[in-house]
Amino acid sequence: MSLLTLLISIQPAPAQAASTLSMLGADVSSLQHAEDLGAKYYYANGTAGDPLQILKDNGVNYIRLRIWVNPANGYNNKTKVLAFAKTVKAKGLKLMIDFHYSDTWADPGHQTKPAAWASHTISQLQTDVYNYTYDVCNSLKSQGTTPDSVQIGNEINVGMLWPEGEVVNNNFTNLALLLKSGYNATKACNSGTQVIIHTADADSDANARWFYDGIKAQGVSWDITGLSYYCYWHGSMSNMSSVVADMKSRYGKSVIIAETAYPFTADNADSEANSISSSTPCSGYSATWTGQYNNFRDVLAAARTGGAIGVFYWEPTWIATPGNGWDPTNPSSGDGWDNQALFNWSGLANPAIALFKP
Question: What is the pLDDT at residue 159?
Fold first, then answer.
């Protein structure tokens, strides 16, 4: 099937599917490394282009970049993020900095302290979070690339900077101290930068309430509630929409889907097993160009229905590029996300990329 035939065959997005989503975002944290290794990107018609410009031309207005304290491969650290922030802002795109407060991946199952902070007490960690957050934010500000928003932690369902900042026996005391440090540092750097508290709780209103009630009771402030939603991990879109609506109503704060993605194929492009390899990861959506298109279309619509103000696609540019793998400690590791990018294995934009346009 030709690309033109496919585009004609795909059902168009509802006219208002993304009309109220002001944050139409892409997390391209692996892109800098990919380009340094020679990755190339192309518009859907085959014309070569700058990947950020391709995303922008297709409706993206916000870029999310993760930052690690001292990663083994030297990417996603302060120096690299500062450099890439200049590129992002030069494109006229807004910037979100995603603080993992780790040297590597932080998610619901992993919140490892940076090696430099490994022996620190909760009191020292409060200072670490404040100083590090302020330093990164102020360095960005000083070069003219002030972040529009920051995440204080990444998917911190039960805390961050474990074990000191982990929520155990419903005790949010230490986590709240760390979140307050990050919030205060951000606002001291730039009062207009919005602070996001991000969990992967789009699947459970009970879990989301437990977490956000817990930090609210400790006096934590935040501006935007961030939720991850992947249908193969987080269930139905109608439930996600309900969680979004409840979070917005319960806390009186804007809500975003900070991460989402879907496969365009079940095949694998490299030596790393795909994170999602099923031919039909979610009911009604095949792992095809059409399935990816329809899934992303419906996520945007469900988020909008729930009252979200934004949706971010996670790693749309992470095509399989030798050397740009999952494990920062292993240069030969592969990419388990190559089948969920919004560019195919040749770097050609998939049809779903056009859905960012309102």
Answer: 98
Beta strands 310-314; 62-67: pairing state: unpaired
Q: Which two tokens stand for residue 258?
A: 């900070």
**Residue 110: C-alpha distances to residues 31, 101, 106, 162, 281 (Å):** 23, 11, 5, 8, 24
Catalytic hit among 155, 164, 272, 315: 155
C-alpha to C-alpha distance for 349 and 208, rounded to whole angstroms: 35
Q: Is 259 assigned a catalytic role?
A: yes
Q: Please give the pLDDT value at position 323.
A: 95
Q: Longest Cα pair distance anywhere in the chain, in angstroms?
A: 60
Structure-token pair, residue 93: 């795109």
Going by the DSSP 8-state scheme, the letter that residue 258 receives in this structure is: E
* pLDDT given for residue 75 in this prediction: 98
In this structure, what is the dihedral angle of CA atoms 326, 344, 82, 85, given to the nearest 10 degrees? -150
Options 35, 164, 259, 315, the catalytic residue:
259
Question: What is the distance in angstroms between the CA of the first residue and the CA of the last residue of the chain?
Answer: 27
- Residues with Cβ < 8 Å from 350, sequence gap 6 or more? 44, 264, 289, 292, 293, 341, 342, 343, 344
Residue ranges of the chain with per-residue pLDDT less than 50: 1-19
Contact 150, 181 (CB under 8 A): no
**Structure confidence by residue, pLDDT tens digits, 178-206:** 999 999 999 999 999 999 999 999 999 99
